[in-house]
Amino acid sequence: MKNRHINHVTVLGSGVMGSGIACLLAGAGINVLMLDMPVTELTEAEKANGLTLDNKAVRNRNAQMHLDKALKSNPSPIYDKAFASRISVGNFEDDLDKIKNSDWVIEVIVERLDIKNQMFDKVEKLRKPGTLVTTNTSGIPVHLMSEGRSEDFQKHFCGTHFFNPPRYLRLFEIIPGPKTDPEVIDFFTRFSDLFLGKQPVLAKDTPGFIGNRIGVYSMAKVMELGQELGLTVEEVDTLTGSILGRPKTGTFKLADLVGLDTAAKVTKGLQENAKNDQMVNDLKDSKVMNFLLENNFLGDKSGKGFYYKERDVEGNTNRFALDLNTLEYRPLERNNLDVIGRAKQAGGTRNQLAVLLSDKGKHGDLIRKHLASLFAYVSQRIPEISDNLYSIDDGMKTGYAWKYGPFETWDLIGVQKGIELIQSEGFQVADWVKELQNSGVVSFYNVNQNGTKEFYDVESKVFKEIPGQGSFIILDNIRKTKEVWKNAEAVIEDLGDDVINLEFRSKMNSIGGGVIQGIQKAIDLAEKDYKGLVIGNQADNFSVGANLAMIMMMAAEQDWFELNMAIKTFQDTMMRVRYSNIPVVVAPHGMTLGGGCEISLHADKIVAAAETYMGLVEVGVGVIPGGGGTKEMTRRVGMTFEKDDVKTNRLRDAYMNIAMGKVGTSAYEVKNMGYIRDTDVIVMNKDRQIAEAKKHVILLSDAGYTKPIAEKVKVLGKNAMGMFYVGSDQMEAGNYISAHDQLIANKLGYVMTGGNLSEASEVSEQYLLDLEREAFLSLCGERKTLQRIEHMLKTGKPLRN
Asked: β-strands 483-486, 490-496: how paired?
């Protein structure tokens, strides 16, 4: 089928994965039917209400209960709670025939082949021809679920393995069966990328597929090495966490999160099913793991694993870790490892790895042995689990949230040094790597002159372009060859087709003088020689906001002239983003806070990643938004005034979002808050974001873009201001907020109602900017504001004083 569409999906199974997948699909605009077992007993509450086992709500209780639990969980599995209306629930006995209405049926039931096959027997009879049927199994051979079935079923059947949690982990493994139609594989590759925001990875039907085959081995081996070297769980987690570009959970905390019973089961399953995998079968039985399993210490799910926490009689949370030698719990140790400090000072992942590998102590031993075993293992898995190395890297980056895949990490060390490391630790490197080395090839990847990433193809022994890059713009690949201008905090790159991009390069992409200069320069260049400008980057977060250290220094020294000029320059720059002669498209993603939000608010168009966490959070450091954010939300609210009875309600909602420092936890929540408009765009796949933003610059330009005309802003004056003042008085009197919080709230209300105006009026944007800047500066003069800024800089958390 050339044009296949997914409008309705049936999810078979409503557990953690089933409900998570249902929520993801609903977030993508798809109607979902989620089924589970009917209940066999009434609860006491159901009995009291006179319900029977024939009642529909009773029979569907399992699925509904799991959905309700998912929707209450944090972080949320769904982009917007309102999208849950797209999910209906049922049970296997009453509702399975409804799969005839589905375009895709995905099985997410218990990991037992016999039970899965019983379910597929029923599905085969009820599905309409051409319906896609897939399994979310994490390890059962896919071919065992399709063999012997009809030709149409087998053509449309494959494995589609999501990783938990489905919303946040981007890996989508596609595992063809023996007779799967290639068009089905092509469809899922495109659909998962465009509509679900996933990284599709084609895997072979081998034990653990790709992600779990590599990830489980790596985790089990590190745990084994940590015990052999006499390291604590805290040391191991510190050494295998963020310093390697991996989640800060490290290894033992990750095992607790996954579930120790699950980790042990998957490891044992690999050993039983991958008989020819010597490295997996060489993993030693762990007395520590056996102790934990025997005592039902299963990690986070049971409340105790390698770590646990408890509250004392005074309400303080105390944390404990397992001693790997005594098998007794002791207070958690906060280790500041010397080698980690030295590695961080070296700067850059390549230099950090060099420091870690050169350490002569047991900490360096762990890194050397871990990377040696990992490199050896992945080299031996080609072509068993994949024909190409980039699929293995993609699997670990998007399934286990590693910043660098195994082969990318190997490249950072150097192919030759990696081989030497493997051999020095007693492991075997695959023959194809030796052939690569002997041919003079020095890396597994390179970037060609067109900025396209290439990989070493094991079969042909030549470099080939990684497929699918035509839809992406990867800034790392073009920065060296397409750079137009740069300073210490920003880079301007030529994206082609007369569009340039401004990329923040400051620490955490904070906004200081260098970034402001970069915005001005980019607009200067674009107005002269280009169609328009994208402001975007591909760091973990778009921007955490203004450079607080600079603000604190000026305020502490009471250099009010310089601080006023800095804020005025920021405001003027935001207004230039709004009123330039070329279209400016901003591409926020991840944390987009404070000033990052303000830049987005002034764009001609926002192209936001679905995972965008945006908010005006300045109250957390004792000030109000001072870069045009307060003005802009006042302007937007004023544009919606239609009836007298809703004016103050709409203003109040915008005011409360700022006063509470609320952050939307998805682009859809941000849209509900009014920071993203109906005319803006939300993309599911962050990798497509820069290319999509560029496309919209061109569309705006080719449509005959003209500079917007400034219009007056409607404000409500003293009556609305009084409402806010009364509210803050009541909150302070009830001890819900401090006197300092009340001061901030009143300053915010003063600006958003237009200041000292006796009645509703229309004012200029500059009038509101001046009020905003005056309020910001006056709050910077408060001692408690400086305390809040200092606390934020030290801890990264807001202080209420």
From this structure: antiparallel
